[in-house]
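Dear colleagues,

As part of the handover before I leave the project, I'm documenting each prediction I ran so the next person doesn't have to rerun anything. This entry is a single chain, and its sequence is reproduced below.
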Amino acid sequence: MKHKIRPAVFYPPFLLLLFSVLASIFIPDAFLSATKSINNWILQHFDGLFFWATFAFLILVGVTFFLKFSNIKIGGKDAEPILKRWSWFAITLCTTIATGILFWATAEPMFHLHEGPTAIGKSTSFAMSTVIMHWTLIPYGMYTLAGIVFAIGYYNLKQPFAVSTLFYPILGDKAHGTFGKIADGICLFALVAGMAASLGAGVMAISGGIDRYFNITPSTFIYGLICIVVVVAFIISASTGLTKGIRFLSVFNLRLFILLALLIFILGPTIAMLQYGIDGTLDFIINFVPRAAGLDSDLNDIWKRNWTVFNWAIWLAWTPITALFLGRLAVGYTVREFIVFNLILPCIFTVFWMTIFSGTTLHLDVISGGEVYASLVKNGPQSVMYEIFNRLPFSGILGGIFLLSIFVSYVTAADSNTSAMTSMSVTGISPKDPEAPVWLKIVWGIMVGATAWVMISFAGVDGIKMISNLGGFPALFLLILVAAALVALWRKTKELKEEEEF
């Protein structure tokens, strides 16, 4: 067979995920308690490292932008792009934000406004700036750092499609030994568990919307039906390859995002949302360095661990394998262009998105005396967007677009990551033969869908979500090595340029 399973990479995470599902069903309290205890211990003892390391990752990417190294063309002088810039941006954005930006743009500012640090008090500018903080520079800095190293390693240095390639600049061929296989397995498990948890949350949000607009009560059967439709959609998209299904759905998804944002901008409290956005952005800029470094004295340690550090752990858990996919997209473009399309443009988009959705949410909550927050407490984060729509004109139309956006958003993120994780599960993947076997995409897709359905139907998603987030801890140390690998690549600028010219 041209593509053979990598047993040390495929089977451990597959079996570990199966064990996690069974534990969630048969010993749910013990399983959730254990994962929470481990997570709390990590956040308590390594919060400083999370802050300083992730801040350093962003600085390294910023320095890279201005170095001669950033002029290197990914794939060499004669490499041709496989994507046009608009498609590249669409796939990058939809792969990285998934469904999260749809939920948390409205739900997260409510937490920060009503449950924020006591030293801050009820501050709308703090709520807005914190949402921007959690969804822009630091997380995209992680993705961009790893994506650059993988892109150069995969295309220019001709290394395998694997997480271990991220360490090749400092470890050489040893990167693909036992250490590399362990890293591949850990990152694969964290991503699959994270996808299952994300799908579970998405299914519950879709079923909630169906209940609200079509009066169909959520049930195990409805959850299963939604899971099947979503899984079939992203398997088909992933199976058609990067330049067909994945590209088409990502461009369509981005257009849905823009349409929804424009409608809210026009129908919502436009002046108020802009004011909240300006105030929040200024607060973000002024306080960015102390908050990014974990030094803001107004934020108590417990809040920082439960929110900022916990968020960094989530992003880190997804980073290594997502970076493989992002690096694969970038052939034919320079490193500097990679930074623009993977860091700068997504951050600009996110600031505008948060201005519109978070600004609207804050305004409606303030003028209603906290009714939006009350809905969150009663019905969960996934209900807040529907609560916002109910307070705006044409709520049914907005809700329909939102439901479609949730569906397409998860499919576009899942097809990209499914493509990446199946490719790293087998041998023989190369720029000339970039796609893994369809049957393996079906296997992983079914595993993700079945896990999500079992979780939301019988055990709840908290356990599998928590164990996925634990993947951010080893990923933190792996990314520190990747940072060293980027510095090592800087020192090879002349050598890489000579090879490019040759």
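The mean pLDDT is 90. Residues 28-66 form the longest helix (39 residues).

All the best with the project,
I.
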